[in-house]
Amino acid sequence: MRILVIGESCRDIFHYGECSRLCPAAPVPVFKSVSIEKNGGMAKNVQENLNSLGVKTDIVTNEGWTTITKTRYVDLNSNHMFLRVDENDDLYGKINLDTSQKKDFEIYDAIVISDYNKGFLSTHTLQKVSRLHNLVS
To answer: What's the CATH code of the domain at 6?
Structure first.
C-alpha cells in the first residue's frame, strides 16, 4: 500500500519533567526538565504513524517546517501539559498543486489530508485533490 499525505507540518518538542513545588514568587509550578523528545508534528506525525503500520508514504508539506516549533512542557507523573510555546507559527505558506508540488495521484492507493487550518491548504486545493483521486480521507 502507498499513501500520499498532504498537509502542514512543524517540529514537536516535548520537555518531560517533574513539578514538586510551587514558585514562591507566583502561584505557578516549578518545572524541572528530565528528558526532551523531538519529532515531526502535524502532517509529519500522520506520516510517521502510517509508516509505523508498514505503509509506504510520501508527503507534500510546507518548506522549512522544522523552523516552526510547538514546545510542550509535560509532567511525567500526571501527563499534564503545563505550557505550550509556539514559534514561527506564521511560516506555513501555501501549497500550489498546479506547479512544482504536483504529484501523480494515481500511483497512490489513498490520499490522507492533514489540515490544521493554518492556510497551507485552501478550499480550492482540497476540492482539486478530491477530484484527482477516488479515496481521499
So the answer is: 3.40.1190.20
* Integer Cα distance of 74 and 86 in angstroms: 15
Output the DSSP codes for the chain. Answer: -EEEEEE-EEEEEEEEEEEEEE-SSSSSEEEEEEEEEEEEEEHHHHHHHHHHTT-EEEEE--TTGGGSEEEEEEETTT--EEEEEEESTT------TTTTT---GGG-SEEEEE--SSSSS-HHHHHHHHHH-S-B-
Number of domains in the chain: 1
pLDDT digits (tens, 9 = 90+) for 100-127: 345 578 889 999 999 988 888 888 888 8
pTM confidence score: 0.84
Q: Do the domain assignments include residue 43? A: yes
Radius of gyration of the chain (CA): 18
Residues in Cβ contact with 117 at an 8 Å cutoff, skipping those fewer than 6 apart: none
Q: Which domain holds residue 33?
A: 2-132
